[in-house]
Amino acid sequence: MADFPNCPTCNSEYTYEDGSLFICPECAHEWTAEAETDIGDQRMIKDANGNALNDGDTVTVIKDLKVKGSSSVLKMGTKVKSIRLVEGDHDIDCKIDGFGAMKLKSQFVKKI
After folding, report:
1. pLDDT at 40
2. Is-contact 4 16, C-beta < 8 A?
3. How far apart are CA 13 and CA 93, in angstroms?
4. Rounded CA separation 77/56 (Å)
5. Where do the structural domains in the chain lie, given as residue ranges?
6. CA atoms of 82 and 94, how far apart (whole Å)
7. Which end of the chain is more exposed for a tag (fewer CB within 10 A), N or C?
8. CATH of domain 1-38
9. DSSP code string of 47-62
């Protein structure tokens, strides 16, 4: 029996090959073998110290940041839990206690 890769979308082990495509019968995702090895298109997001960030990480703010549209300031050392990485200039989407939903730049945080 051939050893096919798990589905990159739902991680199902029941994938099969159809010509040059791999197909997942559970979620109907189709991908090529080249897509399986091509991870160069993913952008690595790093914190101020060069550590790679992932969804769900906890970070701290490394300097006081002005909150746009408000007179309040996000203080240095503020802990931010369960970050979510997004595309764009402000590449961290999060909720901060006392401030609510906010977007941050990864250059102003460090991973705990």
Report:
1. 46
2. yes
3. 32
4. 18
5. 1-38, 58-111
6. 7
7. N
8. 2.20.25.10
9. -TTSPBP-TT--EEE-
